[in-house]
Amino acid sequence: MTKQLLRDTYNPKHPKRRKKAKKVECKLKTIAGCLIRELERELASDRLAVYQAELDLFQQVLTQKRSDKNKIYSLHKPYEFGNKIGLITTSKPPLNQ
Questions:
Q1: Is 81 left (phi over 0), alpha (psi -120 to 50) or beta?
Q2: Closest CA to 21 of 31, 36, 11, 29
Q3: CA dihedral 78, 8, 36, 47 (to 10 degrees)
Q4: pTM for this structure?
Q5: Tens digits of per-residue pLDDT, 19-36?
Q6: Are 9 and 25 in contact (CB under 8 A)?
Q7: What's the Cα-to-Cα distance from 70 to each of 29, 67, 74, 81, 91, rounded to whole Å?
Q8: For the packed helices 18-42 and 45-63, what is the interaxial angle rounded to 10 degrees?
Q9: Contact 37, 56 (CB under 8 A)
Q10: Rg value, the chain, Cα
Q11: How many CB atoms neighbour CB 25 within 10 A?
């Protein structure tokens, strides 16, 4: 079910998909919030202490707003600003030699 919901969020700027994508995004946030609350309820206190930092991170991702400072952009690696470049290599020598 969540695979299909995730697919429905693809290309949300398309006029025919905007309404559905927004609705599905809200539903996915609800499901994720339920899972976090269930984990906090069901985990034993010693296990909860081990995973509390990750659960707090997930909760912050769910509650952040567009205008908030210190947003989380990626859960797996630090967000980096940069540019992609493309390099082309050829076997020909430079023209000025």
A1: beta
A2: 11
A3: -60
A4: 0.69
A5: 999 999 999 999 999 999
A6: yes
A7: 20, 10, 12, 14, 47
A8: 160
A9: no
A10: 21
A11: 15
